[in-house]
Amino acid sequence: MGKTQSTPEKSALRTELLQVRKGVSPALTPQWDSEICRHIRSFLTQYPVAQGVGFLPFPGEPDLRKLMAPGETNLIWGVPVVADGLHFYPWTPATPLRKSPFGFWEPETQSMPMDFFVPTLILVPAVGLDPQGHRIGFGKGHYDRFLQQISAKTCVTMGVVYDACLREALPQDPWDIPLSHICTQSGWRST
Length: 191
Prior knowledge:
Elements: H1 8-23, H2 29-46, E1 51-53, H3 65-68, E2 76-82, E3 86-90, E4 97-99, E5 105-107, E6 120-125, E7 128-129, E8 135-136, H4 142-149, E9 155-160, E10 181-184, E11 187-190
Parallel strand pairs: 1-2, 1-6, 6-9, 9-10
Antiparallel strand pairs: 2-3, 4-5, 7-8, 10-11
């Protein structure tokens, strides 16, 4: 898959959804983040996996660090690094971080990237989601290219946003990869 380019419709919707995210009260997000983490723990009782990959929160994104902390689940957790594609590296709260060229936090030292030959839950950040598992991200296509390479037999994908960023339907392009599940503070569901 080559470089993707966002359509004008997606760009306008992305701008709208980013404004919605900015309008979410910071007083509410800690409770919502706890609810999202609780729902994902519930999901893990029904879909046993050996490892998980999440993300360190960008402004307006749910904060999943509590879920990914040692002792919260029995999973090994990783977070993304964008360098010649999207790769995931093991993460704990003690992992040294650096700011990526895209503005999000990523592991500073990169040992061996995680592989996806074992059952894995992939938590995918999004600017917006719809009930069919379609997402709008930041428009660079990193996750779509990555998701195209992994096996649906070993990997379960879950988009994570706040309820305010759900839409009934989102525009799609040929390179978009729908997610198998979505989760908000209201709960998780299959797509």
